[in-house]
Design a protein that fits this description.
Elements: E1 9-12, E2 31-35, E3 43-51, E4 54-62, H1 99-109, E5 118-120, E6 126-128, E7 132-136, E8 139-146, E9 151-154, H2 157-164, H3 167-182, H4 195-224, H5 232-253, H6 257-262, H7 264-284, H8 292-321, H9 327-356, H10 360-384, H11 392-405, H12 411-417, H13 442-454, E10 455-457, H14 461-464, H15 468-477, E11 483-488, E12 491-496, H16 502-522, H17 529-533, H18 538-559
Parallel strand pairs: 2-4, 10-12
Antiparallel strand pairs: 1-2, 3-4, 5-6, 7-8, 8-9, 11-12
Length: 583
């Protein structure tokens, strides 16, 4: 028939009711539904295709199926004379079918893409015009109708299996699985740009750390008497004493938590040094078995302290990585990455321990190599982190550069310039060979370093003023601020009021930077608190400038990514509560 070549059938599973089925169709005869592109003049026409098993009723939507019906009339495509049944056995008789058939034609007309299948021909062959795809995520599966089972089946199963097992497809699937398990959802948009570099370096250092841990554990077991006929109870007691004494360090170190917020990179690197030193002591225990408890306790204390610092600083890093506030997911993926590193490291450590045996010298030599790898990867991972919060050094560098050039420096430039150990200058030689910044000026770097050394947050008021006149002048000048700033013996002393917030501390540091700028560039020296508070004095000039420009520098800093909601600092615990009375 003319319609058979242009119609695209879709196999449905609805048999005809016994009362209305054509005479040539049985109850089990499948129903075919075909869809062709609809033109303005198209009319749906119901016709019959004859296969080997009998006549199949087909609903065809398109033109050219019946030349006498492809005309424009007022009835439209769904007019009363647009629907007719043709049956080879009874061409003159018309049949009325359920409303479901009409709804099916409407659904077919609304599809944006053409459905594909095979058309059953008189010779039993299947012709494939288009393809039906099943989509699950990024996986597309080709489907064709199976007329014998009244269902859609996967096309070319063996061929698809061969493609699935191909190297490129297998690599892509493995990569997608790894990304789903180890990287936050939406990567790389859901995290910051420094997340991947940090994770890669941390993965390598995690392997090295576990290798050192296996070597240290083996040495401890030899020292406690494993394999030498030691009494199990005595060995267990020594082990418990070693761990119990070591746990005390974690309890005592917890009170320094605020230090970790201010300088997380430096403290994290210090914890890695402490952990490696503890591993080294444990490897030495077989040479001094009679000092097992003492050496083990010292090493255990170092490892416990390192664990506490690592857990505290890890939270700072992960919070910075969460670009979409997906803190929990970033932490979860970080733990998964750590488990993989630990598993690989444990396996390598066991293999290396079997090769070394009980030789302390070989263990120390291997430990030295692994420790170098561990510390190098740690250093690279911390240098890749770009902290966006403002501690005293980063804030001073941002403010100094703003005062000198009128613009806030980028996060990457400031983090690359920040020393890992600001309080210990000789340890900062590790990064002395880095490239010089092309954005940050040498004056700004010098100002940030000097201000951090001269800054004293939380000073006692009684230590910086000696007479009533100075107190009244300072109280009157800073009556609307949450702090009081003055200079005493070369120190920038900031007295914090009881209502002082991190935002007030950030504002006070901006005034400190402007005072330093006046000292270096304008030559305005301190002449005492009362004189500096008068009109035209250092404190009065600097405070007036800060009140005018502080919001501007905040907006400029936020525009390049800085978090300016407050200063991350460790002030002294001193506070004052000034009481103002009207006379």
């Amino acid at each position: 028939m003319a319609c058979a070549s242009s119609c695209r059938p879709l196999f449905l599973s609805s048999p005809f009711p016994s009362s209305s089925s054509p005479s040539s169709c049985s109850l089990t005869t499948p129903f075919l539904f075909s869809l062709s592109p609809i033109k303005p003049s198209s009319k749906p026409i119901i016709t019959t295709l004859t296969a080997n098993s009998g006549s199949f009723p087909v609903l065809s939507v398109g033109d050219g199926c019946d030349g006498g019906n492809n005309n424009n009339n007022d009835d439209g495509p769904f007019g009363s004379d647009s629907w007719r049944w043709n049956d080879d056995s009874s061409s003159s008789s018309s049949h009325s079918y359920p409303f479901l058939l009409f709804l099916s034609s409407l659904l077919a007309c609304s599809c944006h893409s053409q459905l594909s299948s095979a058309l059953a021909r008189t010779n039993g062959e299947t012709e494939e015009d288009d393809v039906v795809w099943e989509v699950r995520g990024s996986k597309w599966t080709k489907l064709i109708p199976d007329f014998s089972d009244d269902a859609f089946v996967v096309s070319n199963g063996i061929s698809n299996l061969t493609k699935l097992l191909s190297l490129s497809t297998l690599w892509g699937q493995c990569r997608d699985l790894v990304m789903r398990l180890l990287l936050p959802e939406g990567f790389p948009d859901s995290v910051t740009s420094d997340y991947l570099d940090y994770s890669l370096w941390r993965g390598v250092q995690g392997v090295a750390s576990q290798v050192s841990g296996v070597l240290a554990t083996q040495a401890l077991l030899y020292a406690v008497g494993l394999g030498k006929g030691a009494i199990p109870t005595a060995a267990a007691i020594n082990w418990v004493l070693k761990d119990g004494i070591g746990y005390l360090s974690k309890i005592m170190l917890s009170k320094y938590g605020r230090h970790f917020d201010v300088n997380p990179k430096g403290w994290r690197l210090f914890s890695d040094l402490l952990e490696n030193a503890a591993f080294g002591l444990e490897i030495l225990t077989p040479s001094f078995p009679h000092l097992f408890v003492l050496i083990g306790a010292i090493a255990g204390a170092g490892r416990s302290a390192a664990t506490l610092i690592q857990a505290a600083t890890r939270s700072c890093f992960y919070a910075g990585f969460a670009a979409q506030r997906n803190f929990a997911e970033v932490i979860a993926k970080g733990e998964a990455q750590g488990m993989i590193s630990k598993s690989i490291g444990i396996g390598l450590g066991i293999a290396l321990a079997n090769c070394i045996g009980s030789s302390t010298s070989f263990a120390l030599a291997s430990f030295g190599v692994v420790t170098w790898i561990h510390m190098y990867c740690n250093l690279k991972s911390y240098q890749s982190i770009q902290l966006r919060t403002l501690n005293p050094y980063r804030a001073s560098l941002v403010f100094s550069e703003y005062l000198l050039s009128g613009q806030a420096p980028s996060i990457k430039e400031v983090n690359a310039e920040e020393p890992l150990f600001p309080a210990v200058p000789f340890l900062n030689l590790l990064s002395a060979n880095r490239e010089q910044s092309v954005v940050l000026s040498s004056e700004a770097k010098q100002a940030a370093s000097e201000i951090e050394l001269r800054l004293q947050l939380g000073s006692k008021l009684s230590d910086i003023v000696s007479n009533k006149e100075d107190v009244l002048a300072l109280f009157n000048l800073y009556k609307d601020e949450g702090y009081i700033l003055t200079e005493q013996e070369g120190k920038f002393c900031v007295v914090l009021k009881e209502s002082c917030s991190p935002q007030d501390m950030l504002k006070s540091l901006f005034q400190v930077n402007y005072l330093y700028w006046l000292e270096r560039n304008a030559g305005i020296e301190s002449r005492g608190a009362s004189n500096d508070c008068r009109q035209g004095g250092r404190l009065q000039i600097s405070l007036e400038y800060v009140q005018r420009e502080f919001n501007h520098v905040k907006i400029d800093s936020e525009s390049v990514g800085w978090v300016t909601d407050g200063l991350i600092a460790r002030p002294l615990p001193n506070r004052i509560r000034p009481v103002y009375t009207t006379v």
